[in-house]
Amino acid sequence: xxxxxxMLALSILGVVLMGLGGLMFQAARHTRQSAAVAYRSSAxxxxxxxxxxxxxxxxxxxxxxxxxxxxxxxxxxxAYRKPRRQGGYGHHRPESRALTVTLQRQLxxxxxxxxxxxxxxxxxxxxxxxxxxxxxxxxxxxxRQDAMMSARQASRAALNTMVDELRMVxxxxxxxxxxxxVRVRMPYVFxxxxxxxxxxxxxxxxxxxxxxxxxxxxxxxxxxxxxxxxFLSGISLTPSSDMAAxxxxxxxxxxxxxxxxxxxxxxxxxPSPGTLIYLFQNVTYRFGASTDLPGRIGxxxxxxxxxxxxxxxxxxxxxxFQCLVGPNLQxxxxxxxxxxxxxxxxxxxxxxxxxxxPRGDSGPQTFNLATRVTFLNKVN
Length: 380
What we know:
By secondary structure, this protein is α+β, with helices and mostly antiparallel strands. The protein contains six helices and 14 strands. Strands 1, 2, 3, 4, 5, 6, 7, 8, 9 and 10 form a ten-stranded antiparallel sheet that branches. The chain has a four-stranded antiparallel sheet with strand order 12-11-13-14.
């Protein structure tokens, strides 16, 4: 609720209260007039009943009237005559006196004055302003908390997706990196090379790391060569049943693993039996324009030749990557001066943003989540 809406609501409330005060004043005025009429009518009825109880020949003497009064004039004279303190007509019975006192109290009651109504309206307006301010502040606080939770959820969802994959990057696995994108060779299954048959390599592979890679298509093979990895692209993968190619070197297929035939490897690059290998996919993470929320930034992922997939949205413009270089893992802007070979990890700056702007704020709420991921699959 904005300040203009609050002032408009208070103005309407003030007008309603003034109208209500006027109605109460008119009601009090009519109540007073009705009480006066009722008092007079009761007084007349009481006087008439008392006069009827007197002997007619002694009424003028007891009342103090002349003989020429009629019955109606005598009744009115009794009703409006000022009571005496002792004896005669002024000595009322207790119930008549109680009725008279009650009617006099009702007669003396009055309604609210205009000044009292104005003061009450001002007090109510002040209290209403304070209450409205409290409600507005409480509404803004709740809106900010909801927006913060939304931004935090976006940051943590991206963190859970990226960290597990980036940790498995090996030496030389970083293909390209910038402040808003990174492309890596992502290992998804490891194995051991066996003998080659008809120019194809027979290999025993372990089970994939997760269900996400169970049906993945490899973009290449990496084999260990001394203190580094050699990456081979353009390979093909088919199932194999030639157990003799592996059993001759005492290599077995582990439970849940598979025996495959890998083609497309040139003879000079053919791994020797017993060499550690892994299959990889080229995976790209980037921050780009979102399609789910037009005008906002989303986190995209692309694996191999599959189309881009929007993982999480939205993010702030400050979201991006920094490169960790040197033994102390110093964070520098990507790409670093020493080139990709100097990068030992990445710092993820996952600045999530809320989908909407909280009440009273000029922009979406943000949540800054920064974490460092070092490449663990190192040769040395």
